[in-house]
Amino acid sequence: MYIKAKKSLGQNFLIDRNILEQIVDTVDVANKEILEIGPGSGNLTTYILKKNPKKIHVIEKDNDLALLLKEKFNNEIHIINDDVLKISENDISDEKLTVFGNLPYNISTEILSKWIINLSKNFWFENLVLMFQKEVADRIVAQCNTSKYGRLSILSNWKLNIKKIIDIKPESFSPRPKIDSSLLLFTPRLNFFEIDSAKNLEMITRIFFSQRRKMLKKPFNQIFKDSKKVSEKFDIDLNLRPQNLEPDVYFNLVKEYESLRG
Q1: Distance CA 164, CA 76 (A)
Q2: Is the pLDDT assigned to residue 1 strictly greater than 50?
Q3: How large is the angle between the packed helices 247-261 and 198-209, nearest 10 degrees?
Q4: Are strands 78-80 and 33-37 parallel, antiparallel or unpaired?
Q5: Which residues share a beta bridge with 162?
Q6: Is the pLDDT confidence value at 9 over 60?
Q7: Local structure of 256: helix, strand or coil
Q8: CA of residue 222 relative to chain centroid, distance
Q9: Is residue 114 within 8 Å of 85, Cβ to Cβ?
Q10: N or C: which end of the chain has fewer CB within 10 A?
Q11: Which among 168, 164, 169 has a CA at the least distance from the CA of 137?
């Protein structure tokens, strides 16, 4: 059964054997429950199965590919033929999952943001081994005081430790994307900063980074009635720019915003 990749679903199938092996070797999968997002034609799934996992769940939105996977693997995997954005991850298994995903580029940040925002102290996964287009990965791992640092860096670093594994060239895929990709490893940050609502973190970082070249004075005035008092409390120079503040500073500002409103 031949399946052509669908542009509308952001499909690019990984075909490079060396890269497939590297991805599976990023974490230990033996006797673990695995969740694979967007398995496509099952190339990575094949390599995961060789490592003797306890069970593999795959989420595949494409009906044709779900049929192909059923034909190819029979009962070796549990196929969830649905949209990853509509699924409650906590319902997939009672065990903590090891997650692999060559995420569709058009919704990769949406998937990651959804997972982070919905995380409680009880993480539903042990590891996330996820592929993004390189430009997005660079924003996720970006450090304070760099041009790529922004909302996505702050949100990602809130509840997760992140490590870049490898960059992957277009020729490792079929069809070839026009851009490079990067593989990232995420692990739970066990003592993450507690705030009441992730929506407040999204809102505050959006206000700051919508004018990233402007000084902090303007977003501070927009968010806080007494911006001078708040900036002095956290020893923040309002002549700095949004990219000059560490993630922890933003978390503290969210907490302050919530306590002033509450």
Answers
A1: 30
A2: no
A3: 120
A4: unpaired
A5: 186
A6: no
A7: helix
A8: 29
A9: yes
A10: C
A11: 164
pLDDT (tens digit per residue) in 177-194: 888 999 999 999 988 999
- 37 C-beta neighbours (distance < 10 Å), count: 23
The 3-state DSSP composition of the chain as helix, strand, coil percent (nearest 5) reads: 40, 20, 40
Reduced to 3 states, what is the DSSP secondary structure of residue 16? coil
Per-residue tokens: 18: 């060396």
Q: What is the pTM of this model?
A: 0.92
Tokens of 130: 């996820």
Domains of the chain: residue spans and CATH: 7-188 (3.40.50.150), 198-261 (1.10.8.100)
Q: pLDDT tens across 72-121, in order?
A: 999 999 999 999 999 999 999 999 999 999 888 889 999 999 999 988 88
C-alpha 23/C-alpha 36 separation (Å) is: 12
Q: Which of 148, 151, 178, 182 is nearest to 165 (CA)?
A: 182
